[in-house]
Design a protein that fits this description.
The chain has eleven helices and 18 strands. With 417 residues, it is α+β, with helices and mostly antiparallel strands. It has two domains: 284 residues, Zn peptidases (Aminopeptidase), CATH 3.40.630; 109 residues, Alpha-Beta Plaits (2-Layer Sandwich). Helix 8 packs across helix 10. InterPro entries: Bact_exopeptidase_dim_dom, Pept_M20_glutamate_carboxypep, Peptidase_M20, Peptidase_M20_dimer, Peptidase_M20A. It holds the Pfam family Peptidase_M20. One of its GO terms (molecular function) is carboxypeptidase activity. This is Carboxypeptidase G2.
């Protein structure tokens, strides 16, 4: 693999747009788009759509997403609506199809005190979503803008999906990711890399559960024995869930929150136990799901009823043969650019888990170099915007030339699906 004259022209196209790639990231990050901030999400979607429509030959459409079920702190079950996804498509009839994904929501709610981008003394950008992942979306689009000038582009079709709900587990966009993953050959996803450029390799799977505990209210003084305390039951269930830790290698259970109850002189008749599980593989996922459901099937004492909601939102993403081969190809492309590419396993999850489960080999940390995401210290290094866009652009060039054999990678993945 080497950089050809036609490849270099693509790389130069990226470098010439450095200020625009960084500048639009700052503009987008200055618009709050917390996962449940409908107005902010729509404002960012408008901005993204305007840029997408400038891509030559691309078809741009807003895709309505499905509603999702949520459990409120009082135990009521509600349906939650979500913003549209943005789908951008070019050459869907081409023999090789690349799927590029990202999310335009952030973890910062509309009333967050962390709302604007600043530049730190060391030159890093500090702002909400600047790394996770409005910077990644800008890199994604820059790579495509440049690739569309390459003479071999016609053999490669691509689809971009920008979703509004990744930070809450992709409940609305999961079917869209599954559909794209099933028909694509290679996936590129733009979560941030680590500050030194290291990529995430194998990823654990993740499940989110909400267990509604219903008891019976009574006066805590006059008729305590007539009540059935849901909070006490929830605490006992939480202890049982925590006790699953250490029973199966690589599996963790985090009891995150117990809500419910009310006045101190009332026996609590409602509670909700919320917990997350992480697993290294499908066998572990099956074990923990069965264990959770067994606990949820038997109230800890008489008079309680239990109602379990949720489950796995992100299947495990192991380093199978397809993933290993793709990482090696990306490492070779990085070396041509003077970018050492390393990877390590991660307990975190993202859309790459969903794509892999649907049969798509993918690299899911092709975004900017940064760190401290999900905090008000979130940062991204400005030099990494061009650097990472050039890496993606070169990957696309090498897929087009066949030096990265996308069809073979897909075949390898299907062998282990």
């Amino acid at each position: 693999m080497r950089i050809l004259t036609t490849d270099q022209a693509v790389l130069d196209h990226v470098a010439a747009r450095r200020e625009a790639i960084i500048g639009r990231t700052i503009d987008w990050a200055n618009i709050n788009s917390g996962s449940r901030n409908a107005a902010g999400l729509n404002a960012v979607l408008d901005a993204l759509e305007a840029v997408a429509r400038a891509l030559p030959g691309a078809v741009v459409e807003r895709i309505a997403t499905q509603g999702s079920t949520t459990v409120a702190d009082d135990g009521s079950v509600r349906t939650e609506a979500h913003a549209d996804a943005l789908k951008i498509t070019a050459r869907p009839e081409a023999p090789i199809q690349v799927v590029l994904t990202g999310h335009y929501d952030t973890v910062f709610p509309a009333d967050s005190r962390f709302q604007t981008v600043t530049t730190r003394a060391d030159g890093a950008l500090n702002g909400p979503g600047v790394a996770d992942m409005k910077g990644g979306i800008s890199v994604l689009l820059a790579a495509l803008e440049a690739f569309e000038t390459h003479p071999d582009r016609h053999g490669v079709g691509w689809t971009v999906l920008l979703s509004p709900d990744e930070e809450i587990g992709s409940p609305a966009s999961a079917p869209l990711l599954a559909e794209l993953g099933a028909r694509g050959h290679v996936g590129l996803t733009y979560e941030p890399a680590l500050a030194d450029g290291t990529l995430a390799g194998a990823r654990k799977g993740s499940g989110n559960y909400h267990l509604i505990v219903t008891g019976k209210a009574a006066h805590a003084g006059r008729a305590f024995e007539e009540g059935r305390n849901a909070i006490a039951g929830a605490a006992m269930i939480a202890a049982a869930l925590h006790g699953l830790n250490g029973q199966h290698e690589g599996v963790t259970v985090n009891v995150a929150k117990i809500s419910g109850g009310g006045a101190l002189n009332v026996v609590a008749d409602n509670a909700v136990v919320r917990f997350n599980v992480r697993v290294p593989d499908k066998a572990a996922a099956d074990w923990i799901d069965a264990s959770v459901r067994a606990i949820a099937a038997t109230p800890p004492f008489e008079g309680l009823t239990l109602d379990l909601h949720g489950g796995f939102t992100r299947p495990p993403k192991p380093m199978d043969a397809a993933q290993t081969a793709l990482f090696e190809a990306v490492k070779e492309a990085g070396a041509l650019l003077g970018q050492p590419i390393a990877w390590k396993p991660s307990g975190g999850v993202c859309e790459g888990n969903n794509l892999h489960a649907a049969g798509l080999p993918n690299i899911d940390t092709l975004g900017v170099r940064g760190g401290d995401i999900h905090s008000d210290q979130e940062f991204a290094w400005p030099d990494s915007f061009v650097e990472r866009a050039q890496l993606s652009a070169l990957i696309l060039c090498k897929i087009a030339s066949g030096e990265i054999d996308a069809a073979k990678l897909k075949s390898l993945r299907m062998e282990t699906l």
